[in-house]
Amino acid sequence: MAKKTSLFECQHCGFTSPKWLGKCVQCNAWESFIELNQAQKEVLNALKKPLPQVQKSVSIAEIEHEEVVKFSSTQSELDIVLGGGIAKGGLYLVGGSPGVGKSTLLLKVASGLAKNQQKVLYVSGEESLSQIKMRATRLDCIEKELYLLNEINWPVIKA
């Protein structure tokens, strides 16, 4: 069994220590350390990694045109908005007020892709799996290749 490693953080200045300290050596605050949980440690470690090398700006006239492979989202109106479909390797952020249909639209897209024999992972950090299943049933979006995951931790999702 792996040894548990602890990490403590000063709530005043953010200084971290592998041991609890009564007084922060950076800001001199007393009784300000709390133990971080595993998720908090992962975020803190990610923030400590060096930033990627800074890119220089390039004139738009110098950029070579590349063909982007796109495929249908199965929702024709969305394909129009996306300029012809979903770009392979693309990342899309869908925003809007509560109740406007973001989850419904994306569930219909996921279901349509799964219906075309593509494996689809639908990840929700807000709704439970049973809530998603109820919506999918109502929308007739139950597909064998549509998988659901309720998770907010990116390393867990990525695995």
From TrEMBL:
Pfam families: AAA_25, Zn_ribbon_LapB. GO terms for cellular component: cytosol. The keyword Ribosomal protein does not apply. It comes from the Bacteria. InterPro entries: P-loop_NTPase, RecA_ATP-bd, Rubredoxin_2. GO terms for biological process: recombinational repair. GO terms for molecular function: ATP binding; ATP-dependent DNA damage sensor activity; DNA binding; metal ion binding. Residues 67-159 form the RecA family profile domain. Keywords: Metal-binding. PANTHER family: DNA REPAIR PROTEIN RADA (PTHR32472), DNA REPAIR PROTEIN RADA-LIKE PROTEIN (PTHR32472:SF10). This is DNA repair protein RadA.
